[in-house]
Amino acid sequence: MFNFCRLSVKKLNLGVTCNFECNKKWFSFSPNLHFTAGDEKQEDNSILVEKDECITLIGINRPKKRNAINAQTAEKLSVALSNFEADNTSPIAVLYGEGGSFCSGYDIQDLQMQADKGSLDYLMRHEGSVGPTRRHISKPVICAVNGYCVAAGLELALMCDLRVMEDSAILGFINRRFGVPLSDGGTVRLGAMIGYARALDLLHTGRRVEAKEALNIGLVNRIVATGTALGQAVNLAFSIAKFPQASLLQDRNNLYANAYGRRSFRDAVQNEIMNTSKEVLKELKEGVERFKKSETKGAKTDGWHIKEKPLPDWEKEEIAQENKVKTKK
Fold this sequence. Notes:
ClpP/crotonase-like_dom_sf, Enoyl-CoA_hydra/iso, 13 helices, alpha/beta, globular, 10 strands, Enoyl-CoA hydratase, 2-enoyl-CoA Hydratase, Chain A, domain 1, 329 residues, disordered N terminus
């Protein structure tokens, strides 16, 4: 529960900013609909895209909004993921958030503007309100979860194949308390991932989910130390990228189809067999020959193990301090 203890109002040249300070220290609201030059520049860079060798890195860059996504950012994210899908040199992507949080959902300021107009444009956007969440991304995407990953931000994380979560991060559908419904595939994917009963629990209560529970119920795939989610997600991406991709994608697509579209076991098995392509058969043949002729059998499957990553002394001290505070709690 939020216990609001102080309201501060600051007058600016372009409007008024209201900050609610509460026990959770993260909720803010600004009715100012104008932007400074610095804000406009940040909006231009609201989605960051770069490559680490064959891995595409896509970052949500609105740290002042805890990476809440507005219509402009959602469009840019859709374009970035479409470009990744079209890039034959990149088999896997990592989606992350800049500035301490993955994504706090849909931008409440943008939502208020639309609500005042009586508009539901954010719901009607073809691919989804916070990105291409209403379709299946054609190649694997790993989500690096840090800070807050809530509301539509959690729906965005569910769109990804795998989720690497920092031990201090928070998940949850906190939009429940504000009367905002799920609209980005959350009700579709959540039950398939964690089961009907658990999904209802999270949807009905809108409660916070911490890392240990998230891992136990299957909401995330790995827990890592605070400050390391992006690096460990990239490590995981490299361990997947080294495998032959045609067979990997076939198995992935079959699993997706069987989870959401097949009505019987017979249909599912038939789908698994009939989707075998010439490219998969070629990879299979090469793999058998490699097994017979060489001691090198191909990429090892234990590459998913989290690798130790050298950290500077100052970062080690920060992590140690955060762990000490958690222990006291």
